Amino acid sequence: MLFIARMLLMGLHFVIAGVAGSLLCICRPFNPDNSRLCARLYSIPALWILRINLKTEVSSLFAKKRACVIIANHQSNYDLYVLGRVVPERTVSLGKKSLKWVPFFGQLYWLAGNVLLDRGNARKAKQAMQTTTETLKNRDTSIWVFPEGTRNPGQQLFPFKRGAFQMAIDAGVPIIPVCTSHYASTVKLGRWNTGKIMIRSLAPIETAHMTHSDMPALIEQCRVQMQDCIDQMTHELIEQAAG
């Protein structure tokens, strides 16, 4: 019964947040701070409805002084509500073109200034990547990317795709990894208190003097750091639950 009530409330919230966010974006279309505001519209009420205990340690993310590439692990559609709580100012994300047609969300996602990639069209995808690189260099706007390229509910990160790292090197901007503890199988929506999730941002990794030949080592460095952080947070949560 609790699960059904929550899903009904979440459905209503999804529609209301979509309408409110769309009105905001219509008033200031493609403003680079729309994504942060819309993310809060989705996240804050949802965390209350779902009664998720979210602990954030993201000082390195909010202390950023200039544009950067933010990379994060992607576990489920609930990331919209979980990670939406920590989207910093002037940050847009990369998403697949098909998101544009999701009712009450897709049009908002586009109007919020996010970048839609047509992964089935190499030429258009390359153009979009060039546009985001230009945005990083000249518009004081950060890009949020899920480098695994798809949802991953497992405990081990998938191999990272090159796009985020190529953008960072081409623009000469730092990379900030953002890690979320493993929650896809631990959060139980049928309980009153559904569970605890931790989010941690790591220290910025500078790319200013890197070239494309440095990319494989950079990708591996980021993946190892993120996996270690995710494993550590998950272990901490297990210990807290046992204590």
TrEMBL record:
NCBIfam families: AGP_acyltrn. Transmembrane segments: none annotated. Its EC number is 2.3.1.51. Keywords: Acyltransferase, Lipid biosynthesis, Lipid metabolism, Phospholipid biosynthesis, Phospholipid metabolism, Transferase. It catalyses: a 1-acyl-sn-glycero-3-phosphate + an acyl-CoA = a 1,2-diacyl-sn-glycero-3-phosphate + CoA. The keyword Lipid metabolism applies. InterPro entries: AGP_acyltrans, Plipid/glycerol_acylTrfase. It is an enzyme of class 2 (transferase). One of its GO terms (molecular function) is 1-acylglycerol-3-phosphate O-acyltransferase activity. Residues 68-183 form the Phospholipid/glycerol acyltransferase domain. PANTHER family: 1-ACYL-SN-GLYCEROL-3-PHOSPHATE ACYLTRANSFERASE. Belongs to the 1-acyl-sn-glycerol-3-phosphate acyltransferase family. SUPFAM superfamilies: Glycerol-3-phosphate (1)-acyltransferase (SSF69593). One of its GO terms (biological process) is CDP-diacylglycerol biosynthetic process. Pathway: Phospholipid metabolism; CDP-diacylglycerol biosynthesis; CDP-diacylglycerol from sn-glycerol 3-phosphate: step 2/3; Lipid metabolism. This is 1-acyl-sn-glycerol-3-phosphate acyltransferase. GO terms for cellular component: plasma membrane. The HXXXXD motif is essential for acyltransferase activity and may constitute the binding site for the phosphate moiety of the glycerol-3-phosphate. It comes from Pseudomonas marincola. It comes from the Bacteria.
